[in-house]
Amino acid sequence: MITLIGLGPMGQAMVRVLLENGHGVTVWNRTAARADGVVAAGAVRAETPADAVSASELVLLSLTDYAAMYDILGKAEDALAGKVIVNLSSDTPEKTREAAEWVEARGARFVAGGVMVPAELVGKDEAYVFYSGPTDVFEKHRDTLALIGRPDYLGEDVRLAQLFYQAQLDIFLTSLSVFLHASALVRSAGVPAEKFVPYAKDNFKMMDFYLDAAAEQIEKGDHPGDDANVTMMGATADHIVQASRDAGVDVILPEAIKSHYDRAIAAGHGRSSWTSLYEIIKAEGK
Fold first, then answer.
1. Considering the entire predicted model, what is its pTM?
2. What b/e readout covers 125-134, taking b as 16+ CB neighbours within 10 angstroms?
């Protein structure tokens, strides 16, 4: 038996995958009616959080954030001893560390996770999930967790799953906003967004070309600007701001990008590669 708490679209998708693979699943949700569909498919409805936790050794959480974990498991503290809590909710790495300490202080083990696909892809070949926390606990439940998506275990530091999860979403959310901003630019001239899409796809695909070399330069702290330096690319960033302003398009996003180039130039990186922007973005000492 596995317990899953939190029946939004992601939680419901995970329950269905577990049921389809022969697992018994106990569920609980604050809005009880959200359990109706998965109960009809074979899940067992728990009446309280304590009942849900008591039903299984392995307890999966699919909640809005970690604050919801305290709200729910705080009502089931006496049932936590000996359990494994796998929190697949989204929050910061520091809040993950605090949550692990809270859970472990109550006699349970804690593994953090981050599901990197939308609900409709849970259990599919495209699905993967970051995990971090005690190796022995993760390995014991690896096969079960693999039903949700390919498990990518990052290590004992419990913060790592959410660190990688948020880093991936940093790329994802920023890319979505960039596409919308670029679409607004072309539409300001009466061009349909659909006409721009093939070029945007080509641009996103081309990003792959730059990443390996960029990561190497970041690690070495060496940013040769032989091909395109910060001064040149900073001028382009300024052109994007001006084009946006002329078109009446919001300039907050391109101004943020331009600020990286401005600060890199001010720091003496004008003749360096664009990867030198990392030096003014990174945490101090990193």
1. 0.93
2. eebbbbbbbb
